[in-house]
Predict the 3D structure of the following.
Amino acid sequence: MNDIDLLSGILSKTGDLVAGVRDDQLSAPTPCPEYDVETLRNHIVGWLGVFEAGCHGRTYEGDAAAHVCGDDPAGEFRATAAGLLEGWRTYGTDRKVAVTGGSELPAPMVLDMTLMEYLAHGWDLAVATGQPVPFTEEEGAAVLGRAEGTLPPQYRGPGQAFGDVVPVAADAPAVDRFVAFMGRDPRAADALGR
């Protein structure tokens, strides 16, 4: 599976998860302690705009952390996802891309960051809202491999963007191994009472 097809599948499934959020779930907790469902959904949609702008060589206007979805979060997500995929298909990955702060990163690294972001937060949203986790074993394994090559240990632990790796069985499903690598407990659904 090529990178763009992998990203397309993950974004499509994440868009379905965004569409599956009910209004009565917006204040529910998520596996991200600082986010309830509504805040997580705003984050998912807002940051997609940052990645979409970057892959087109534009600067994202506004503050993704302050993004608030409009009346159709799923439509907003899907339109932005389509723009992101179009940007990768049109301009490719043999270049540098600026995502935040104006510093440019190799495009393959930015694409890997996008894959990690949307598989992890798609899983978070599924768990928080009681929806089935839709990601395949192939998607989980592919993104785990990229995460292992992208996320260094110094970004983990207290005060960092990522938690410590959660131990799981070596033969656990690939999506579980991926979320554990990202610092989440694959048993989070049980802890949230889902």
Residues 136 and 173 are 9 Å apart (CA to CA).
